[in-house]
Amino acid sequence: MAEVFGLPLPVLAGQVMLGLVNGCFYAVLSLGLAVIFGLLRIVNFAHGAFFMVGAFAAWMLQRYAGMGYWAALLLVPLVVGGLGGVFERTLLRRLYGMDPIYGLLLTFGLVLVLEGGFRVAFGTSGQAYPVPANLQGVFNLGFMILPIYRAWVIVAALAACVATWWLIERTPLGARLRAATERPLLTQSFGVDVPRLLTFTYAGGIALAAFTGVLAAPILHVNSGMGSNLVIIVFAIVVIGGMGSVLGSIVTALGIGVIEGLAKVWYSEASTTVIFVVMVLVLLFRPRGLFGKEGAA
Protein backbone atom coordinates (compact mmCIF):
# COMPACT_ATOMS: atom_id res chain seq x y z
CA MET A 1 0.00 0.00 0.00
CA ALA A 2 1.33 3.45 -0.94
CA GLU A 3 2.51 5.64 1.91
CA VAL A 4 2.91 9.41 2.24
CA PHE A 5 4.97 10.81 5.13
CA GLY A 6 5.01 7.32 6.63
CA LEU A 7 1.21 6.98 6.62
CA PRO A 8 -0.93 4.72 4.41
CA LEU A 9 -2.63 6.83 1.74
CA PRO A 10 -6.21 5.94 2.82
CA VAL A 11 -5.46 7.00 6.40
CA LEU A 12 -3.85 10.26 5.29
CA ALA A 13 -6.64 11.07 2.82
CA GLY A 14 -9.30 10.25 5.38
CA GLN A 15 -7.79 12.60 7.95
CA VAL A 16 -7.33 15.37 5.38
CA MET A 17 -10.98 15.02 4.38
CA LEU A 18 -12.14 14.99 8.01
CA GLY A 19 -10.02 18.06 8.66
CA LEU A 20 -11.45 19.75 5.58
CA VAL A 21 -15.00 19.16 6.84
CA ASN A 22 -14.12 20.68 10.22
CA GLY A 23 -12.30 23.46 8.42
CA CYS A 24 -15.45 24.27 6.45
CA PHE A 25 -17.41 24.66 9.69
CA TYR A 26 -14.64 26.88 11.02
CA ALA A 27 -14.57 28.87 7.78
CA VAL A 28 -18.24 29.88 7.72
CA LEU A 29 -18.28 30.62 11.45
CA SER A 30 -15.08 32.65 11.38
CA LEU A 31 -16.29 34.41 8.24
CA GLY A 32 -19.38 35.71 10.03
CA LEU A 33 -17.24 36.74 12.99
CA ALA A 34 -14.74 38.50 10.73
CA VAL A 35 -17.50 40.35 8.87
CA ILE A 36 -19.01 41.63 12.12
CA PHE A 37 -15.68 42.73 13.54
CA GLY A 38 -14.33 44.09 10.27
CA LEU A 39 -17.35 46.25 9.56
CA LEU A 40 -18.80 46.96 13.02
CA ARG A 41 -15.69 46.66 15.24
CA ILE A 42 -17.69 44.45 17.63
CA VAL A 43 -16.09 41.36 19.19
CA ASN A 44 -19.16 39.14 18.89
CA PHE A 45 -18.67 36.54 21.59
CA ALA A 46 -22.27 35.34 21.01
CA HIS A 47 -21.38 33.88 17.62
CA GLY A 48 -21.14 30.32 18.94
CA ALA A 49 -24.45 30.71 20.76
CA PHE A 50 -26.21 31.72 17.53
CA PHE A 51 -24.60 28.69 15.86
CA MET A 52 -26.24 26.58 18.57
CA VAL A 53 -29.57 28.38 18.13
CA GLY A 54 -29.47 27.63 14.40
CA ALA A 55 -28.96 23.91 15.06
CA PHE A 56 -31.72 23.84 17.66
CA ALA A 57 -34.08 25.77 15.37
CA ALA A 58 -33.61 23.16 12.63
CA TRP A 59 -34.21 20.36 15.14
CA MET A 60 -37.36 22.01 16.55
CA LEU A 61 -38.78 22.67 13.08
CA GLN A 62 -38.20 19.03 12.18
CA ARG A 63 -39.67 17.65 15.40
CA TYR A 64 -42.59 20.00 16.06
CA ALA A 65 -43.48 21.29 12.59
CA GLY A 66 -42.40 18.37 10.41
CA MET A 67 -40.18 20.70 8.35
CA GLY A 68 -37.42 18.98 6.40
CA TYR A 69 -33.74 19.74 6.21
CA TRP A 70 -33.81 21.76 2.98
CA ALA A 71 -36.56 24.08 4.16
CA ALA A 72 -34.75 24.59 7.46
CA LEU A 73 -31.50 25.36 5.63
CA LEU A 74 -33.27 28.28 3.93
CA LEU A 75 -35.57 29.43 6.74
CA VAL A 76 -33.41 29.16 9.85
CA PRO A 77 -30.66 31.62 8.76
CA LEU A 78 -33.35 34.18 7.91
CA VAL A 79 -35.14 33.80 11.24
CA VAL A 80 -32.03 33.68 13.43
CA GLY A 81 -30.43 36.49 11.41
CA GLY A 82 -33.58 38.53 12.07
CA LEU A 83 -33.24 37.90 15.80
CA GLY A 84 -29.64 39.06 15.54
CA GLY A 85 -30.84 42.23 13.81
CA VAL A 86 -33.27 42.90 16.67
CA PHE A 87 -30.46 42.44 19.19
CA GLU A 88 -28.26 44.87 17.24
CA ARG A 89 -30.94 47.55 17.00
CA THR A 90 -32.09 47.36 20.62
CA LEU A 91 -28.87 46.79 22.57
CA LEU A 92 -25.66 46.50 20.59
CA ARG A 93 -26.11 49.78 18.72
CA ARG A 94 -25.72 51.72 21.96
CA LEU A 95 -22.10 50.55 22.22
CA TYR A 96 -20.78 51.74 18.83
CA GLY A 97 -17.75 53.96 19.24
CA MET A 98 -17.07 52.72 22.78
CA ASP A 99 -14.27 50.45 23.94
CA PRO A 100 -14.70 47.00 22.29
CA ILE A 101 -14.67 45.37 25.74
CA TYR A 102 -18.25 46.59 26.28
CA GLY A 103 -19.46 44.79 23.17
CA LEU A 104 -17.61 41.66 24.23
CA LEU A 105 -19.20 41.75 27.70
CA LEU A 106 -22.69 42.33 26.29
CA THR A 107 -22.42 39.47 23.81
CA PHE A 108 -20.91 37.23 26.49
CA GLY A 109 -23.94 37.96 28.65
CA LEU A 110 -26.17 36.96 25.73
CA VAL A 111 -24.24 33.66 25.50
CA LEU A 112 -25.05 32.91 29.15
CA VAL A 113 -28.73 33.70 28.63
CA LEU A 114 -29.11 31.62 25.44
CA GLU A 115 -27.09 28.62 26.59
CA GLY A 116 -28.73 28.62 30.01
CA GLY A 117 -32.20 28.84 28.50
CA PHE A 118 -31.65 25.96 26.07
CA ARG A 119 -29.98 23.89 28.79
CA VAL A 120 -33.02 24.27 31.06
CA ALA A 121 -35.45 23.56 28.22
CA PHE A 122 -33.70 20.61 26.55
CA GLY A 123 -31.07 19.33 28.98
CA THR A 124 -27.45 18.59 28.19
CA SER A 125 -27.56 15.13 26.62
CA GLY A 126 -28.13 16.40 23.09
CA GLN A 127 -30.72 15.77 20.38
CA ALA A 128 -30.17 13.72 17.22
CA TYR A 129 -30.96 15.31 13.86
CA PRO A 130 -31.28 12.89 10.91
CA VAL A 131 -29.26 13.17 7.73
CA PRO A 132 -31.66 13.99 4.86
CA ALA A 133 -32.59 10.92 2.81
CA ASN A 134 -31.11 12.20 -0.46
CA LEU A 135 -27.73 12.85 1.22
CA GLN A 136 -27.36 9.47 2.89
CA GLY A 137 -24.83 6.92 1.70
CA VAL A 138 -21.18 7.20 0.73
CA PHE A 139 -18.88 7.93 -2.19
CA ASN A 140 -16.26 5.28 -2.87
CA LEU A 141 -13.25 7.30 -3.99
CA GLY A 142 -11.04 4.24 -4.29
CA PHE A 143 -8.56 5.33 -1.65
CA MET A 144 -11.25 6.21 0.92
CA ILE A 145 -14.97 6.13 1.67
CA LEU A 146 -16.51 9.62 1.91
CA PRO A 147 -20.02 10.08 3.35
CA ILE A 148 -22.19 12.00 0.91
CA TYR A 149 -23.36 14.40 3.61
CA ARG A 150 -19.80 15.40 4.49
CA ALA A 151 -19.11 16.07 0.81
CA TRP A 152 -22.22 18.26 0.74
CA VAL A 153 -20.98 20.19 3.80
CA ILE A 154 -17.75 21.01 1.99
CA VAL A 155 -19.59 22.22 -1.13
CA ALA A 156 -22.21 24.25 0.78
CA ALA A 157 -19.69 25.87 3.13
CA LEU A 158 -17.30 26.86 0.34
CA ALA A 159 -20.20 28.25 -1.69
CA ALA A 160 -21.32 30.36 1.30
CA CYS A 161 -17.76 31.64 1.81
CA VAL A 162 -17.28 32.59 -1.86
CA ALA A 163 -20.71 34.27 -2.02
CA THR A 164 -20.02 36.32 1.12
CA TRP A 165 -16.57 37.38 -0.09
CA TRP A 166 -18.01 38.40 -3.46
CA LEU A 167 -20.84 40.35 -1.82
CA ILE A 168 -18.48 42.35 0.37
CA GLU A 169 -15.58 42.86 -2.02
CA ARG A 170 -17.16 42.98 -5.48
CA THR A 171 -20.64 44.54 -5.23
CA PRO A 172 -21.97 48.10 -4.72
CA LEU A 173 -23.69 46.95 -1.54
CA GLY A 174 -20.36 45.75 -0.16
CA ALA A 175 -18.77 49.08 -1.07
CA ARG A 176 -21.53 50.93 0.81
CA LEU A 177 -21.07 48.64 3.81
CA ARG A 178 -17.35 49.36 3.96
CA ALA A 179 -17.90 53.07 3.50
CA ALA A 180 -20.59 53.13 6.19
CA THR A 181 -18.22 51.67 8.76
CA GLU A 182 -15.12 53.67 7.80
CA ARG A 183 -16.78 57.07 7.17
CA PRO A 184 -20.34 56.88 8.54
CA LEU A 185 -21.12 60.62 8.57
CA LEU A 186 -19.78 61.18 5.06
CA THR A 187 -21.64 58.11 3.77
CA GLN A 188 -24.88 59.25 5.39
CA SER A 189 -24.52 62.68 3.77
CA PHE A 190 -24.88 60.92 0.40
CA GLY A 191 -28.30 59.62 1.40
CA VAL A 192 -27.23 56.14 2.56
CA ASP A 193 -29.12 54.76 5.56
CA VAL A 194 -26.06 53.85 7.65
CA PRO A 195 -27.89 52.43 10.72
CA ARG A 196 -29.86 50.07 8.47
CA LEU A 197 -26.65 48.91 6.77
CA LEU A 198 -25.05 48.17 10.14
CA THR A 199 -28.08 46.16 11.19
CA PHE A 200 -27.95 44.27 7.89
CA THR A 201 -24.25 43.51 8.47
CA TYR A 202 -24.77 42.10 11.95
CA ALA A 203 -27.85 40.12 10.89
CA GLY A 204 -25.89 38.72 7.93
CA GLY A 205 -23.04 37.57 10.17
CA ILE A 206 -25.51 35.89 12.54
CA ALA A 207 -27.29 34.25 9.58
CA LEU A 208 -23.97 32.67 8.57
CA ALA A 209 -23.60 31.25 12.09
CA ALA A 210 -27.15 29.84 11.97
CA PHE A 211 -26.54 28.39 8.49
CA THR A 212 -23.48 26.60 9.87
CA GLY A 213 -25.57 25.31 12.76
CA VAL A 214 -28.04 23.70 10.37
CA LEU A 215 -25.17 22.14 8.40
CA ALA A 216 -23.66 20.77 11.62
CA ALA A 217 -26.90 19.42 13.11
CA PRO A 218 -26.80 16.00 11.35
CA ILE A 219 -23.11 15.53 12.24
CA LEU A 220 -22.97 16.86 15.81
CA HIS A 221 -25.42 16.14 18.61
CA VAL A 222 -27.57 19.27 18.96
CA ASN A 223 -26.91 20.52 22.48
CA SER A 224 -26.66 23.76 24.41
CA GLY A 225 -22.86 23.67 24.63
CA MET A 226 -22.04 22.95 20.99
CA GLY A 227 -21.27 26.59 20.23
CA SER A 228 -18.93 27.06 23.19
CA ASN A 229 -16.82 24.17 21.93
CA LEU A 230 -16.14 26.01 18.67
CA VAL A 231 -16.13 29.72 19.42
CA ILE A 232 -12.64 29.82 21.01
CA ILE A 233 -11.18 28.01 17.99
CA VAL A 234 -13.01 30.39 15.67
CA PHE A 235 -11.66 33.44 17.52
CA ALA A 236 -8.14 32.02 17.19
CA ILE A 237 -8.69 31.54 13.44
CA VAL A 238 -9.82 35.14 13.04
CA VAL A 239 -6.74 36.34 14.91
CA ILE A 240 -4.43 34.19 12.78
CA GLY A 241 -6.05 35.26 9.52
CA GLY A 242 -6.16 38.93 10.51
CA MET A 243 -8.95 40.62 12.46
CA GLY A 244 -11.63 41.64 9.99
CA SER A 245 -10.05 39.94 6.97
CA VAL A 246 -12.69 37.93 5.11
CA LEU A 247 -10.23 36.12 2.85
CA GLY A 248 -7.86 35.52 5.76
CA SER A 249 -10.59 33.85 7.81
CA ILE A 250 -11.56 31.49 4.98
CA VAL A 251 -8.02 30.42 4.07
CA THR A 252 -6.88 30.09 7.68
CA ALA A 253 -9.94 28.07 8.71
CA LEU A 254 -9.46 25.52 5.93
CA GLY A 255 -5.74 25.26 6.63
CA ILE A 256 -6.24 24.88 10.38
CA GLY A 257 -8.86 22.19 9.82
CA VAL A 258 -6.45 20.13 7.71
CA ILE A 259 -3.56 20.65 10.16
CA GLU A 260 -5.81 19.60 13.04
CA GLY A 261 -6.87 16.47 11.14
CA LEU A 262 -3.27 15.47 10.40
CA ALA A 263 -2.22 16.15 13.99
CA LYS A 264 -4.74 13.54 15.15
CA VAL A 265 -2.74 10.93 13.22
CA TRP A 266 0.82 11.97 14.02
CA TYR A 267 0.34 13.18 17.61
CA SER A 268 -3.27 13.07 18.73
CA GLU A 269 -2.57 14.78 22.07
CA ALA A 270 -1.61 17.95 20.18
CA SER A 271 -4.68 18.09 17.93
CA THR A 272 -6.63 20.33 20.31
CA THR A 273 -3.75 22.72 20.96
CA VAL A 274 -2.02 22.99 17.58
CA ILE A 275 -4.21 25.94 16.56
CA PHE A 276 -3.13 27.92 19.61
CA VAL A 277 0.52 27.14 18.93
CA VAL A 278 0.02 28.52 15.42
CA MET A 279 -1.72 31.59 16.85
CA VAL A 280 1.15 32.31 19.24
CA LEU A 281 3.70 32.02 16.43
CA VAL A 282 1.68 34.33 14.18
CA LEU A 283 1.25 36.92 16.93
CA LEU A 284 5.00 36.83 17.62
CA PHE A 285 6.13 37.32 14.03
CA ARG A 286 3.14 39.00 12.35
CA PRO A 287 0.86 40.57 15.00
CA ARG A 288 -1.68 41.86 12.47
CA GLY A 289 -2.35 38.31 11.22
CA LEU A 290 -1.47 36.54 7.99
CA PHE A 291 -3.85 38.65 5.88
CA GLY A 292 -4.32 41.64 8.19
CA LYS A 293 -3.61 45.18 7.11
CA GLU A 294 -0.97 47.45 8.63
CA GLY A 295 -2.23 48.90 11.89
CA ALA A 296 -4.74 46.11 12.49
CA ALA A 297 -2.71 44.62 15.33
Cα radius of gyration in angstroms:
19 Å
Total beta-strand segments: 4
Largest beta sheet: strand ordering: 1-2
Query: Which overall shape is indicated by the principal axes computed on the Cα atoms?
Result: globular
N- and C-termini, Cα separation: 47 Å
Q: Which stretches are low in confidence, meaning pLDDT under 50 for 5 or more residues running? A: none
Helix-strand category: mainly alpha
The largest pleated sheet is described as: 2 strands, antiparallel
Order of helices and strands: EEHHHHEEHHHHHHH
- Helical residue percent? 55-70%
What is the residue-averaged pLDDT? 86
Taken as a percent bin, the fraction of beta residues is under 5%
> How many individual helices?
11
Can I get a quick summary?
With 297 residues, this protein is mainly α.
Describe the fold and architecture.
The protein has 297 residues and is mainly alpha-helical. It is built from eleven helices and four strands; from the N terminus they run E-E-H-H-H-H-E-E-H-H-H-H-H-H-H. The strands form two sheets. A two-stranded antiparallel ribbon has the order 1-2. The protein has a two-stranded antiparallel ribbon with strand order 3-4. The model has no long low-confidence stretch (mean pLDDT 86).
List keywords for this structure.
mainly alpha; two-stranded antiparallel sheet
Layout: helices, strands, pairs:
Elements: E1 3-4, E2 7-8, H1 9-40, H2 47-64, H3 69-90, H4 100-122, E3 138-140, E4 145-147, H5 148-170, H6 172-182, H7 184-189, H8 194-216, H9 228-241, H10 246-266, H11 274-285
Antiparallel strand pairs: 1-2, 3-4
